[in-house]
Amino acid sequence: MKTLVFATHNANKAREVEQILGGQYQVKTLSDIGCTEEIEETEPTLEGNALLKARFVKERYGFDCFSEDTGLEVAALDGAPGVHTARYAGDDKNPEANIALLLRNLDGQSDRRATFRTVIALLMDGQEILLEGACPGSIANAKRGLKGWGYDPVFIPEGYDQTFAELGDVVKNQVSHRARAMAKLVDQLCS
Fold it and tell me: What are phi and psi of 94, to 5 degrees?
């Protein structure tokens, strides 16, 4: 089994990616390689942040790796929270506060269209490759469901009437932005 270093401390993301990869790869996190630092996401785009994190791991630890940055882009909010998705309600990255702020900002809005977008930066064999996955959908009026994490209780993927938190991991890992980006990563790794 091949090992991939995923430039994240988020165990939920690593677990999700490992499930998407179907056991073909062992996914190691920053913690697994002894990196205890939090890599600051200072770039103004998802692409920039993904590259910044992957380059940090390659330069400091020498591993070929991949990194991702994900943003929730809401039409009625001019694409916000976007690159600030994890820190929408503050630097403490509190998902409950993020959801509450999002729902407040959408109060009274009839246009609830949104897109989750994931950009993966793969640094391997001296190359830098960017891959993207997107999942269009909408924002629910209130939190629904007990599964998932982050914005899952309020994001309804296109073609469904349930949130990611109601649909659960099996469906989410087939249709999500991260699943679509990961499919491109797997294609890239296997080509």
Answer: -85, 115
What local confidence, expressed as pLDDT, does residue 191 receive?
Answer: 62
The helix/strand/coil state of 190 is helix
Query: 56 CB contacts (<8 Å, ≥6 apart)?
Result: 7, 39
3-state SS string over 153-177?
Answer: CCEEECCCCCCHHHHCHHHHHHHCH
Percent of the chain with pLDDT over 70: 98
Select which of 69, 78, 125, 152 is catalytic.
69
Asked if residue 6 lies in contact with residue 17, where contact means CB atoms within 8 angstroms, the answer is yes
CATH 2.60.120.10 describes domain 2-190: no
Residue 187 annotated as catalytic: no
* Domain boundaries, given as residue ranges, for the chain: 2-190
